[in-house]
Design brief:
Layout: H1 2-31, E1 39-45, E2 48-53, E3 56-63, H2 64-70, E4 77-81
Antiparallel strand pairs: 1-2, 2-3, 3-4
């Protein structure tokens, strides 16, 4: 079972990344009043994501620990970095 531990961790990280991309996509669509389908998101690693939404570009930072402070279930908390976009 041990050889599969790394694979399971990588799969879990990948799922978390896809979830974060969806959260950022929803957030950018709302922030820029842009259709969700028109928002693309790049994973920059380390919890940072760059969203492109209807001519706007913004950096979002996601953190599960901040979410746990307000939501015991620990959903993801993503905020727009005001200095990271256009």
């Amino acid at each position: 079972m041990r050889p599969y531990a790394g694979l399971l961790l990588a799969a879990a990280a990948g799922c978390a990344s896809y979830y974060a991309i969806d959260v950022v996509r929803d957030r950018a669509a709302r922030d820029y009043r842009c259709p969700r389908g028109s928002v693309s998101v790049d994973d920059l690693d380390g919890g940072a994501y760059r969203a492109h939404a209807c001519g706007h570009e913004a950096l979002y930072v996601c953190n599960r620990e901040l979410a746990k402070e307000s939501d015991p279930a620990g959903s993801l908390y993503c905020v727009r970095n005001e200095g990271g976009g256009r």
